[in-house]
Amino acid sequence: MSGLILTLKKELKVPLDASIISPTNLAGKTMDEVKNLELWEGNKKVKINEIFHVEGENKEEDLTIKLVGDFSKARGLGFKMSGGKLVIEGNAGLRLGEKMKGGLIKVSGNAGSWVGSEMTGGIIEIEGDAGDFIGAGYRGGRRGMRGGKIIVKGDCGVEAGAWMINGIIKVYGNAGIFPGIHMKGGTIFIKGNCEGRAGAEMKDGKIVILGFLPSVLPSFDIDDIKDSVKVEEEKISGPFYLFTGDLNEDGIGKLYVSINSNPQLKFWEEFLERVI
Fold this sequence. Notes:
The protein is mainly beta.
C-alpha cells in the first residue's frame, strides 16, 4: 500500500489525543516531520515516533494512512480531515471523524462514541459496532452532522443522529434508544431493531426502521402505509407504516416502520382514513 503506515509500539494504557493524525494534517510533511509531531498521551506530550513505528511514503494530496493496532483509547482520529483515506486495522476510540469535511475513514473493528460528531462531509465506515451519539452534536450544542455518511455494519448506541441537520446514517445492526432525537434533516436507516423513542422531538428528516420498534411516540400521527421507501438511491421493500412528527415540535419528520416486524403496531391502522 502506498502511503503512511503507523503501527502501535505498545498497548495504549491512557487516553491518547490523536486529533493530529489525519491525511489532511500529515500530507506533504517529510517523514522526519511526521515522526516528530507531538501529541498528548494522558498528561504528557510525546512524539509520534515514541508511540508508533512509522513506515511508507508521504504524498502532497490524497494521502492514505493505515493505522495498525488497538486504538480504543485514541481520541479524535481524522479530526477535521477534508480528503484522503484513513484506514484503521483494529478498534477506534471516541470522536472518530469529528468535524470531518471529506475523505474516507474505514475501521475494521469497533468505534467509540461521538463518531462523526458535527461532520459536514466524507464517509465513515465501521465494520463492527459503534458507541453512543454517532453523527450527533455535543452536549449543550444544537448542531449535529450536516453532511456526509456514516455506515455501521454492527450495532450502535443511544441517540444516533441527535440534532442531525443533513447527511446519511446507516446502521445494519440494532440501535439504542432515541435515534434521531432533535433531528432537523437527513436520513437514518436502521436495518435491525431499535430500543424505542425514535424521532423524539424531531422537526424534519427521515428515519427508516426495518426491525422491531416497541412503540411509536404518541406525538406522531400515522399518515399512510407504503410499499417501499427510498434510502439514497436504494429502494427498500416494505410494507411500512408512515408516521409524521414530532407534533410536540410542529415537526414534519417522517418515520417509516416495518409492518412485518411490528404486529403490535396494527392498532394504528384504525386511525388511517384508508389502508393501502
